């Protein structure tokens, strides 16, 4: 897993590993190998022996965003990796500081367009090209207002920046921001998924708020090195999908604002291709670069 322990991705990885260990009677060890926005761990799996014993459990961004964001990568997702399943997804929630005079998306857009001194300051919790940055740029492209991105090192830091008023707005991962919004420290204006989040049914979607067709979700995906035998991939796909049917696993994921998927490998490949196309357009249009 090419991200640090403790986050939503790690949470899912360890629950899924426990299920697979039982069903396949085989120990599953989650190895966190973070760095370079997921590139280090992803490359390690891309170059691993294709025997089915080394798997990649990853947020989709190293596969859908990084190939456009980085001038050079040591791996090529389509060439080097084969999807097993899209395991779960999460949406982003648009939040603002309570001092912002906006109780809806429309009011925020009007406010942002009327700012005279400087554009809207918005933050994200993973630096340039992270999900919060990309989602806001995608939204700005449709809504037509100016904004300045303020990158933070992590989700906790950007929440602190918002609560403290150093920045005014942001798209934050729904699992990490709902409680802060419930406590009134931030205002949740809308969610990025096509349906309202089950844990926040009173928060409308961006699509409901005047931007029909707006839909952003990020995926937790399991993959193998490309040359793993098809028979092994079929077993893994079957077992992952079966694990995702377990009521206890589904309820624990949804309690974290994660939506279980359990797709086929082919469906996961289509999801990744669609997301890659969208983020390629956003990155190039917004001229986002990592030098």
Describe the structure in your own words:
There is one protein chain. This protein has twelve helices and eight strands. It is an alpha+beta fold and 291 residues long. The chain folds into two domains: 8-89 and 218-286, Bordetella uptake gene, domain 1 (D-Maltodextrin-Binding Protein, domain 2), CATH 3.40.190; 90-209, Periplasmic binding protein-like II (D-Maltodextrin-Binding Protein, domain 2, 3-Layer(aba) Sandwich). Strands 1, 2, 5, 6, 7 and 8 form a six-stranded antiparallel β-sheet that branches. The protein has a two-stranded parallel ribbon with strand order 3-4. β3 (120-124), α7 (131-143) and β4 form a beta-alpha-beta unit. α7 (131-143) packs across α12 (265-286). It starts with 7 loop residues before the first helix and ends in a 5-residue tail after the last helix. 45% of the residues are buried.
Put simply, the count of helices is 12
Question: Helix share of residues?
Answer: 40-55%
- What is the 3D shape? globular
CATH-wise, what's the superfamily of the largest domain? Bordetella uptake gene, domain 1
Distance linking N and C termini? 25 Å
CATH C-level label of the largest domain? Alpha Beta
- Percent of residues in beta strands? 15-25%
The ordered string of helix (H) and strand (E) elements is HHEHHHEHEHEHEHEEHHEH
């Amino acid at each position: 897993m090419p991200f640090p322990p403790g986050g939503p991705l790690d949470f899912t990885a360890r629950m899924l590993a426990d299920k697979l260990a039982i069903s396949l009677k085989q120990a599953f060890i989650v190895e966190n190998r973070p760095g370079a926005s997921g590139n280090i761990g992803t490359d390690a799996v891309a170059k691993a022996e294709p025997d089915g014993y080394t798997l990649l459990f990853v947020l989709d961004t190293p596969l859908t965003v990084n190939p456009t964001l980085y001038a050079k990568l040591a791996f090529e997702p389509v060439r080097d990796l084969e999807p097993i399943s899209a395991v779960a997804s999460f949406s982003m929630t648009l939040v603002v500081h309570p001092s912002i005079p906006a109780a809806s998306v429309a009011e925020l857009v009007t406010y942002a367009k009327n700012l005279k001194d400087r554009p809207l300051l918005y933050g994200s919790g993973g630096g340039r090209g992270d999900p919060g940055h990309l989602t806001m740029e995608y939204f700005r492209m449709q809504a037509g207002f100016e904004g300045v991105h303020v990158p933070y090192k992590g989700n906790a830091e950007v929440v602190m920046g918002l609560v403290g008023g150093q920045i005014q707005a942001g798209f934050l991962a729904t699992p990490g921001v709902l409680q802060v919004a419930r406590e009134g420290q931030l205002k949740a204006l809308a969610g990025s998924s096509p349906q309202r989040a089950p844990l926040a049914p009173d928060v409308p979607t961006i699509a409901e708020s005047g931007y029909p067709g707006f839909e952003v979700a990020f995926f937790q995906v399991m993959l193998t090195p490309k040359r793993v035998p098809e028979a092994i991939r079929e077993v893994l796909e079957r077992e992952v999908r079966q694990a995702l049917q377990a009521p206890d696993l589904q309820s624990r994921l949804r309690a974290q604002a994660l939506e279980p998927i359990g797709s086929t490998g082919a469906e996961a490949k289509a999801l990744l291709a669609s997301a890659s196309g969208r983020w390629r357009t956003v990155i190039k249009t917004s001229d986002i670069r990592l030098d």
